[in-house]
Amino acid sequence: IPFSVSSSFGGFILEHQLDILHLDYPTDKYLIHTYQRKNITALSEISEIRWSGVGHTAAIGRNYIHSGPTIRNSGLFSAYTPSVNHIAVNLNVFSDWQFEYQLIRLDDRQAEPGVYKRWLYYRRLQFSIGESWKIGLKDAVLATGLQRGVDLAYLNPASVFQLEQLHGNVEQGTAGQNNDNQLMGLDLEFQYNISTRLYLDAILDEFQIDVADRDHLQDVFGVTLGIEITKPNQQTFFEYWYGSPWLYTNGGDYTNVEVNNIPLGFISPNAYGISIGWIHDYQKVQTSMLINIHKQGEQSVNTIWDSVDNRIPLLLPDEDWQPELDLRLGLKKARFLKE
Q1: Can you say how many angstroms the Cα of residue 16 is from the centroid of all Cα atoms in its chain?
Q2: Spatial contact of 19 and 31, defined as CB atoms under 8 Å apart
């Protein structure tokens, strides 16, 4: 049962949504349930204030994050990602250049030395080439440490996250030290015609520069390939996604890319699948269908990182395909009571 309220004044929008949930009832989002009584919990799913100007937006609070060209599956910020506490800015740098920045506050972790604070810094720059191509470059770093605050170097849009990461001790993950986990990515979008677009979204977590190392060390990555076809009152999309073994895991203390043990991207590392979606609007009725099938290995976002001889097969021939079917019928702006 959702309770929503929103209000706008000037360029500001205040939005809040409180959900009353029964934990045994399925939901299409991975929600974080902490406090419950008799299998029922209340959750502030959205609580955000936003400002919108000409080509610029800024937000602070809790909300879901979408970044890049994908619809459902992405290595970072997919439909499976829970709502997070964040500060966000989105700027039009030039006429067709867009820059977005997210400072995300993740959950704390209690350990014997003390409390580890966890922060995710994310930025993405998108620009166009001609009328058909859009290219996005993205960079993210998850930083943890005992009572660790915000790093001013990571707040600098021009800083090099990879170099800043090396200031920590990621591989050994020594207790009490700052530990950082950096990822980078690329996305491409091609507008084939007025109704069809194709897109690719990829992230890179670990890469072996020496070719000889790839015989025993794993390249760690995630990729999504998709196509979207839009017609009047209708949307159809197809996405293939792949998350390699060891994706989101890292050797530093609490530097796995997750929040409350839920990945910030795909449903799991060491998994891959296909999503097919269809949405149709007809006057006051909306119908939608979503088909998901995927394979998932034994790894989870909490699998302990192994940085030595960690190569395992990319495919999962012995695992069964897990199917999911979601059908929905919705009424829009239907009046049941006369004024």
Answers
A1: 21
A2: yes
Residue 29 has pLDDT above 90, yes or no: no
Q: Is the alpha carbon torsion for 29, 79, 55, 236 positive or negative?
A: negative
Contact 287, 294 (CB under 8 A): no
Query: Which among 133, 130, 77, 72 has a CA at the least distance from the CA of 100?
Result: 77
Is residue 337's pLDDT more than 90?
Answer: no
- Which amino acid, residue 267? I
Helices (H), 125-259: 152-155, 161-165
Tens-digit pLDDT profile for residues 53-75: 888 999 999 999 999 999 999 99
Q: Are 125 and 137 in contact (CB under 8 A)?
A: yes
Cβ atoms of 186 and 156 closer than 8 Å: no
**Sequence-distant (≥ 6) Cβ neighbours of residue 179 within 8 angstroms:** 143, 144, 145, 168, 169, 170, 173, 250, 252, 253, 254, 255
**Distance, first Cα to last Cα, the chain:** 25
What is each CA distance from 31 to 3, 19, 44, 64, 281, in whole angstroms? 16, 10, 10, 11, 27
pLDDT digit string (tens) for 261-273? Answer: 999 999 999 999 9
Locus of tokens 């979606």:
277
Decide the pairing of beta strands 12-22 and 40-52: antiparallel
Residue closest to 205 by CA, chosen among 251, 237, 168 = 251
Say if residues 219 and 233 touch (Cβ distance below 8 Å): no
What pLDDT, on the 0 to 100 scale, is given for residue 323? 96
What does the alpha-carbon distance between residue 177 and residue 180 come to, in Å, rounded to a whole number?
Answer: 10
pLDDT of 169 over the 80 cut: no
d(CA 115, CA 55): 40
Task: Give residue for tokens 């004044």.
Answer: 9
Break the chain down into helix, strand, coil percent, rounded to 5: 5, 50, 45
Strands 114-129 and 98-105: antiparallel
Single-letter residue type at 92:
N
